[in-house]
Amino acid sequence: MRGKILIVDDEPAIRQMVSLALSQANYDCLEAADTAEAQTKILADKPDLILLDWMLPKVSGMDYARQLRREKLTEDIPVIMLTARTEEEDKVKGLDSGVDDYITKPFSTRELLARIRALLRRTSPHAAEVSVETGGLSLDPVTHRVTAAGQTLSLGPTEFRLLHFFMTHPERVHSRERLLNGVWGNNVYVEERTVDVHIRRLRKILTPTGHDGLIQTVRGTGYRFSAQS
After folding, report:
1. What is the pTM of this model?
2. Across 154-163, 175-184, 198-207, which has the greatest mean pLDDT?
């Protein structure tokens, strides 16, 4: 699968049409008719991207987008807003609410897929199956191969996911809780000190090629992945 996408729309016909198009493009789809159902789906199985209708019952898509940006679990999930509103002022309001892109109804599935691919390339290289590289350290999510200084490094599955998370979220300080949610998932119970153990293992693997310094400890806060000292 290229990525997991949550479709939040109160119109079953729209959800069915979009889900079919995405499934044919090899995306894994989740569906929700309102924000309450969307929240349940996110907590159970965090998506790589959310397609969010503006006009939803009880809580509007715009208000829900603001909520998503306030919560640690969902602050990094890219959001494309779907709406029949075409005025520039409405588009500005939607973008100001924290969504990453905006597409007006009716839309073609071809355009929607192009927008999704573009957004995933920018925000979720793993979901878009795009290799990432920093300072001579390269990670390919398709082949699960990590190379550095011309050498292939051997990483366990957890260290691979941890390195991938760091490389796709650089220059930001991540708490242990954030790393647990991003790497292990919020529905798996793992103690926070487990993060430190895997950080040590990952640094040890990266030490021979001199890339261990990319993982920086921020005292009292967590860790940062950065090529800057």
Report:
1. 0.57
2. 198-207
